[in-house]
């Protein structure tokens, strides 16, 4: 993939200046190689997600083969969240400072080594006591790789794709993760018909990990294209990591998104990890649980595809996210109710489908919204903290849900096969999960509002022939720090055709964004 095949892109720079003023049109270039970079990221994301959820759809058989308890099997999924929390801060710094190439190649190698170690851990020649620790060690290496790849979609979209393709590129890269979960939900129950087929399952998941490691090592030549595809890409890493964190902690809309969407990530994580255990207690088979998990992801990918194209055209990030958060909460409540009923396959499958359609679909949109409300902070930093919030809340919620389970004294219809252990009732747990998600969704809908800072800065850069784009971004955010928050509607549809080079500061006067002598100190 060479630098050839570049095509000009002037989608961002189509605004004209008023008559009598000099006009300077910046022509940006996009490269066909961006699709290869996106492909490698998608394959790596899918492989890592499949390795994460390998054991959840076949938790009972995994416990039997590894001579482990069901709680130990759950920790094979939970380790992803525990490991990601301390490593994510370093990962965000790596992506924004060292670049995509180094982090993606490192992630691919850790992913491959973890998959191979899991495979070796299931060999029959090893003693029984050695199997679970080796498998857990391999799973931990895969968990270390996760932040290196899951933070990358917004960065790849910003560095390699033009403004009119960013949301779609982010959607494709982000949805590759649930596609990996889909493969795990389908392949694991299909392959592991008996517990002695666990080694074959490890081999099946190790092969793609080795392939994507080869593609990343050989094919990724640079972190970004030779020339930027958009105005914002010119300053994509403009803010130092520590300064970016300080700006994020002063950004109220971002803090709301951090808590509320982090809760959404936690609920989806617990749902994917515990689905088989929740359903088997009510008499549903592993095959049906895998089908429900697959429907959850398939409908999520469909919804994400539709919303990604819609948002690329309309830029209605906030409205789309709020509507889908509300519908996701309703679907989660529906699942909590019908999953505790017997012989309700259609209702359970429908609840899972709608939960995925409305819930999974907003993930890439929310990541783009995160970048819009925090620009010019680095994309990996702002989206990475959202992921960290989700992981922290995932650990807390997973532990709480397991603590709320109760053994069933009599469960003749249970399909759970965990040796002599009693079948667990998840009734209270799923109701608590739905309640938490509903409360945080309401909080987000009622309190979140933000200007679209990246769109505003790009429009202003297209009209300005003198300042550099980085200077415009700094001045725009400096105005916010010194004189108060931008009016929430800036950069959104409700402001109509307002001059994007002017900021409405809420006092009835539109002024050009700039720093002034009233600022006590330089905010950067």
Keyphrases for this structure?
mainly alpha; 18 helices; 66% helix; Growth Hormone, Chain: A; two-stranded antiparallel sheet; globular; two-stranded antiparallel ribbon; 2 domains; 524 residues
How would you describe this structure to a colleague?
Mean pLDDT is 77; it is low at 10-25 and 476-524. Helix 1 packs parallel to helix 4 and helix 10 (252-280) packs parallel to helix 15 (379-403). It is built from 18 helices and six strands. It has a two-stranded antiparallel sheet. The protein has 524 residues and is mostly helical. It folds into two domains: 31-408 and 415-447, Up-down Bundle (Growth Hormone, Chain: A); 455-512, no CATH class.
Determine Rg (CA atoms, Å): 24 Å
Looking at this structure, what is the CATH superfamily of the largest domain? MFS general substrate transporter like domains
- What pattern of helices and strands is seen along the backbone? EEHHHHHHHHHHHHHHHEEHHHEE
Mean pLDDT: 77
* Beta-strand fraction estimate: under 5%
N→C terminal distance: 39 Å
Biggest beta sheet attributes: 2 strands, antiparallel
Structure in a nutshell:
Helix content is 66%, strand content 3%. The protein has 524 residues and is mainly alpha-helical.
